[in-house]
Design a protein that fits this description.
about 25% strand, 14 strands, binds protoporphyrin IX containing FE, four-stranded antiparallel sheet, about 300 residues, 8 helices
Length: about 300
């Protein structure tokens, strides 16, 4: 029996929809009723749920470690913080079915929570980023994945939680395509042709910046990113689950050059336009476990 939402560690689906809700009416009673309704709809697998800090505070509860996404801004790396109250990650293999499920959720939690943003995501080939590079290769597996992504030994109501960081990145394909293929490989730090890591990649290479074992303490993340597009733009919905936000924050700091002034080469052809943190409640008796919120 899972004590965490099974969709967190499940394989990536063919299609997904990310829903971000904001609080429309700050009435604790109504918000609690909305969450109850959502509990009846979310199975933790095809629908993974995360709560933002504003939502837990509206219910008079504080989840230790849950905080607001840290934005930062430098000329070469703008990282916006765009908090939301609630995130639902709808996963499946049929976009129509996902869309219908998303409308059911929207209706069920109105008028207290209203949809602020929706992003449709999809699998590209075998799980590639739209630049053609395989994404997720160095994700921890099996027990190591659980250790990285799921909070344990924190007590009832918290064991089985996960903390998720989500950013919508917009790729500048013209800039990426203007780079020579070898420079593209150096920017990522892996060869697109065979996904081999380039040992002597420069320090600005993405996988050099984020090498999980190079942090003290080691900064393992469980990434579940997928490509997205709308009528004009496209990129990656970056999704990283952790037992806290610490590993993500350490990586992001290094990517933005906050440690040594070296900015991750990803920023040369992509930029985040959103950034938010959510607490994914544990799973118990076939439902979201909201004991930490006093429910
Ligand atoms: C446009 C956004 C991004 C793209 C296209 C991207 C793409 C990639 C690719 C292609 C890899 C190599 C294969 C793999 O191990 O998955 C990778 C590795 C990785 N990325 Fe990203 N990434 C993005 C954003 C981020 C962000 C924001 C973070 C964390 C703050 C991050 C953390 C990591 C980590 C931890 C690894 C594995 C490093 C290792 O231990 O080898 N990525 N990414």
């Amino acid at each position: 029996m899972n004590y965490f939402q099974a969709g967190i560690l499940a394989p990536l689906p063919l299609a997904a929809r990310h829903l971000f809700f904001s609080i429309a009416e700050g009435d604790a009673h109504g918000i609690r009723a909305s969450l109850d309704a959502l509990r009846g709809l979310a199975d933790g697998d095809a629908t993974v749920v995360g709560l933002g800090q504003s939502l837990t505070l509206a219910l008079g509860a504080q989840i230790q470690q849950l905080r607001v996404f840290p934005g930062s801004s430098t000329p070469d790396a703008d990282v916006p913080s765009t908090p939301a109250a609630l995130w639902c990650w709808l996963r499946g293999d049929d976009r129509g079915e996902i869309l219908h499920r998303s409308m059911v959720i929207e209706r069920a939690i109105r008028p207290y929570l209203e949809l602020a943003q929706a992003i449709d995501a999809f699998r590209y080939k075998t799980g590639l980023d739209l630049t053609g590079y395989e994404d997720g290769t160095e994700n921890p597996r099996d027990a190591a994945a659980v250790n990285a992504a799921i909070l344990q030994n924190a007590g009832a109501g918290l064991d089985g939680s996960s903390f998720v960081a989500i950013q919508q990145w917009v790729h500048a394909f013209d800039r990426f395509e203007a780079m020579a293929p070898h420079d593209q490989d150096l920017a990522i730090g892996r060869r697109r042709s065979d996904n081999e890591e380039i040992d002597d990649a420069p320090p600005y290479a993405h996988v050099k910046r984020t090498a999980q074992e190079s942090f003290e303490p080691e900064a393992f993340l469980f990434r579940r990113s997928m490509p997205w597009n709308d009528e004009r733009r496209a990129g990656l919905v970056f999704v990283a689950f952790g037992k806290s936000f610490d590993a993500f924050e350490a990586q992001l700091r290094r990517m933005t050059g906050a440690e040594d002034g070296i900015v991750d080469a990803l920023f040369r052809f992509s930029r985040p336009v959103t950034g938010a943190y959510f607490w994914c409640p544990p799973w118990r008796d076939g439902r979201l476990d909201l004991r930490a919120l006093g429910s």
